[in-house]
Amino acid sequence: ALELGRGVTLEGLRKLAARLQLDVLVLVSGSSQFKRSETQPGGLFAAFSNAANFEARSALTGFTLDVFAGTLLTPITGLGATSPTLLDPTAEAFLTASRQLQVDAFTTAANQLRDALIGSLRQVREQQAEAPTTPAPRPEPSPAEAPSPTASPTPSGTR
Predict the structure, then answer these.
(1) DSSP annotation string for the chain
(2) 124-158, pLDDT tens digit by residue?
(3) Cα distance between residue 102 and residue 57, in whole Å
């Protein structure tokens, strides 16, 4: 993983990817959230307990740069969320359980992002393979390089 600062340009990213000898550079940005769920248990037990439903959410966005073409592909997002889980914030296991919920949400988002990126790259490669290839135009010789119509070959052995 490489952390980039502010002010990085598309050309700077292309140079970085070329230096690392990459065909594709993927930049990932994301956010995570762990909070009390909107749905809470009801009943007498819930009224006299510290336990509450908590949930974790993660969102990751991948920005893909095709290094050779120098184009950004459409951004892709992966989302992950856990179902509301009853946890007691005063319990010893709260930290471990809450961390596991966050990891689960992140893993789901990362897997979804990975699968979508692979599908997107396959689609781009298929489109590139189907595109008709046109030969590069041949440059015309400059007047200095063109043979002169008045020049005649010299016979061998004479000057």
Answers:
(1) -----TT--HHHHHHHHHHTT-SEEEEEEEEEEEEE-SS---SHHHHT-S-EEEEEEEEEEEEEEETTTTEEPPPEEEEEEPPPEEE-TTSTTHHHHHHHHHHHHHHHHHHHHHHHHHHHHHHHHHHHHHSPP-PPPPPPPPTTTSPPTT--PPPTT--
(2) 778 777 877 666 566 665 555 555 555 555 555 55
(3) 7
